[in-house]
Amino acid sequence: MDPMTKFTPKDHEAIETLEVPESVSYNWEYDSSRKRLSRLYENAKRDQWNATERLDWSIDVDPERGLLPDVAIGIYGTPIWEKLDAKQIEKLRHEQVTWQLCQFLHGEQGALLATSQIVTSVPWYEAKQYGATQVMDEARHVEVYRRFIQEKLGNEYDVNPELKKLLDQILTDSRWDMKLLGMQIIVEGLALAAFGTLRDTTTNPLLRDLTAAVMEDESRHVAYGVLSLREYCNDLSEAEKTEREEFVYEACVLMRDRIQSREVWERMGLDPDECIHHAENGGLAAQFRHRLFSKIVPNVKSLGLLSERQRERFHAIDILQYENETTSDVDHDIELERRVRAGESIEAVAAA
Questions:
Q1: Residues 222 and 189 sit within 8 Å (Cβ to Cβ)
Q2: What 8-state DSSP symbol labels residue 65?
Q3: How far from the centroid of its chain's Cα atoms is residue 205's Cα?
Q4: pLDDT band at residue 136 using 50, 70 and 90 as cut-offs
Q5: Which of 34, 38, 187 has the alpha carbon at shortest distance from 109?
Q6: For the purposes of burial, counting CB atoms within 10 Å of the CB of 44, is it exposed (0-12), middle (13-18) or buried (19 or more)?
Q7: What is the pLDDT of residue 337?
Q8: Which residues contact 319 (CB under 8 A, 6 or more apart)?
Q9: Which of 52, 76, 133, 274 is deepest in the core (most CB within 10 A)?
Q10: What is the structure's pLDDT at 115?
Q11: DSSP class per residue in 103-146
Q12: Phi and psi of 283, rounded to 5°?
């Protein structure tokens, strides 16, 4: 398989430009009283990594043999799956992992753009500092997924329409808190859960190590959103909270629809509606998709954006069950303590 040199998008221009309203905030106080944000900044500086040096890119990758268990494919074990021959199953494995990693790549580019906007518009000095480190993180994530897809998979998918719609909403909203809410809480929250499953189930050591490295950064990103928004949302009016609850719910529905893999079923020549029906109504793949929301719900609750109406809507889409999970800022602290106990970073003891 020859490596790709670039993507060839089918549904978008190669370079797409959005006209966006945006405010830019100076901070002349340079106040650094938000200690947990300052600690995230210190952690981010300490934990920067070079993908060229850290990852072994010489490791062989065979996507047709399966980089993930077949059970993670939505139609596994269904009558549709049973009708596939060996060559079709190999192709489906390749298409499924390509689609998943391409959506990660496109989401990371969206995060790169959104975080750069947050740096200029967020009013707090500590949030600007930390946000600048995340811009570097996102550039690195785009780098590693682009390289893995182009060099190891040799296949591509355009950005999913639902993901693109949410990214556009985030990027074109002039309010920094809506960018944080959409990107750090929804998009990054979903990605972090997906990365965890990918890291724990992939059979390929390069994909495992790549995902584990990305997750180290992502845990900080979601914690950043929780810490920044928790303070800000306390001062919102009821009308403002209602507007943000609407946005969160609509974003969750979009992301639920994004993970249906419709583009994969279409490329395979299968009935996409039938495949989606099977995928959503049984098996481990359905459980995995629901689990993706396990961080969003407790994080939203901690922001004060889980009213009774929102609880009813979350219950209707079967994700309210996660409301009592730990929030991402707590998860980050737990992971930091684990790494310290493992002797990974003595400096982290002082930072904590």
A1: yes
A2: T
A3: 21
A4: very high
A5: 187
A6: buried
A7: 61
A8: 252, 290, 293, 296, 297
A9: 133
A10: 97
A11: HHHHHHHHHHHHHHHHHHH---HHHHHHHHHHHHHHHHHHHHHH
A12: 85, 170
Q: What is the pLDDT of residue 193?
A: 85
Q: Which residue in 84, 90, 99 sits closest to 64, CA to CA? A: 90
At 281 the pLDDT is 76
Cα separation, 184 vs 191, whole angstroms: 10
Backbone dihedral angles phi then psi of residue 193, each to the nearest 5 degrees: -65, -40
C-alpha dihedral, 220 to 221 to 227 to 229, nearest 10°: -170
Residue tagged 């995902």 (tokens): 211
Q: Which of 48, 191, 49, 187 is nearest to 115 (CA)?
A: 187
**Is 159 in contact with 104 (CB distance < 8 Å)?**
no
Contact 135, 112 (CB under 8 A): yes
Query: Taking CA 323 as the corner, what is the angle to CA 322 and CA 329, rounded to the nearest 5 degrees?
Result: 100
Q: What is the pLDDT of residue 285?
A: 59
**Could you tell me if residue 69 is left (phi over 0), alpha (psi between -120 and 50 degrees) or otherwise beta?**
beta
Rounded Cα distance between 347 and 344, Å, is 9
291-329 per-position pLDDT tens digit = 778 888 999 999 999 999 999 999 998 889 888 988 767
Amino acid at residue number 146: R
pTM, rounded to two decimals: 0.91
Q: How far apart are CA 35 and CA 30, in angstroms?
A: 13
How far apart CA 98 and CA 103 sit, in angstroms, is 9
pLDDT of residue 347 exceeding 70, the answer is no
Task: Report the distance separating Cα 6 and Cα 285, nearest Å.
Answer: 31
Percent of the chain with pLDDT over 90: 71
Hey, what are 72's tokens?
């993670």
Scanning the structure block, which residue is given the tokens 């495992």? 208
